[in-house]
Amino acid sequence: MPRSPIATLLFLFFFPASCSSSPAAAANTDIFESWCRRHGKSYASEAEKLARFHVFEGNRAFVESHNAGNSSYSLDLNAFADLSVHEFRTSRLGLGLGLRLSDSAVGGGHTVFQASDSSVPDAIDWRQKGAVTQVKDQGSCGACWAFSATGAIEGINKISTGSLVSLSEQELVDCDQTYNTGCSGGLMDYAYKWVVQNHGIDTEQDYSYRSGERNCIKNKLNHRVVTIDGYADIPPNNEKLLLQAVASQPVSVGICGSEREFQLYSKGIFTGPCSTALDHAVLIVGYGSENGHDYWILKNSWGTSWGMDGFMYMIRNRGNPLGVCGINMLASYPIKTSPNPPSPSPSPTKCSLFSYCPAGNTCCCTRRFLGLCFSWGCCELDSAICCKDHRYCCPYNYPVCDNKTKRCSKGNNNFTIVEGIERTGFFVKFRSWNPLLDLWDV
Length: 442
Prior knowledge:
By secondary structure, this protein is of the alpha+beta class. The chain is built from 10 helices and 21 strands.
């Protein structure tokens, strides 16, 4: 793409190539280029790169100013340092408070947490007890509510059964559409309600995350690996009850996660500033104390480049009933008393009345006449896209077939997948089966 004269002048000013450029300007661009390499950043045009550099420089000044002060936490130029606060808010949050219904409308196993007279430990970290899965990344999809909900279900499932299973946020995003709205936002209570009504939820491995909304894969709804029996809300603005709940299991909470300090958080005990306008969902996975300051341990869903490998310490016991960032205002957790269903034997995939493919395969038509399929092929990918040449298929998250290059893409000429390998890999040649002759014809 040719540069305009103005873009060329701006590029030479901000990204000088000669040795005669000022040392300060060269140092600034070196920092930005190094940051781009570290986080794998690339931009579609020089104009976009200049705009990102400008935002980056503003965030860099903000980080340096904060870290020069006397704060209990520090900031860093993390993977979100090229985003303005507004851009960040529109892409990385997703708590949908506008979706809230009355308690009677929610139903589905809903209860209210009851206080206990038993004492709680001074500190607890559910990560150390093996009840917390790896940090995940919601991407540019407002699905924080789904990650908070699955994290809480993963925790109580480990505590109840001894097995830690990573669960599918994508199934919630795609299929939980009664009250929640996928990447446009949702609430953890409704996610729990959906799992109760569906009699379970699938695994991350079987129904993997795609950072976007797709049609619900309905044949996976019966892949009920982990179940819950209900869910409970913790009375709002009651930190004592929240502490009791976290002492028993990881708990989902709503917070305000849209402040610049939260966006660029690196380590230490976060104290704000932040409002109590809830717009993000996270998971409390423990609590503790350090140098006389009590804190919560939060698991976020922005990947491991944010915070302390994806986690944050947030101050507690500050005397504010709402809690810092409103953390005491909207807390809930799943209830599990029943065992999980036995693992089902893999069922073959039905193509037609007389034809089947092995479990985990996709049926693709290989011969069609007058709109009717007379021969089926088996693609060795689950929920795959059948290419129009009737010989190849692509993964569901790379749905565009290019039969000339034998590659699959996400569209927009973004061919990022490796060359296809017959019957394995991504661009897969499938075997055609004629059910009348019982012959393999490819």
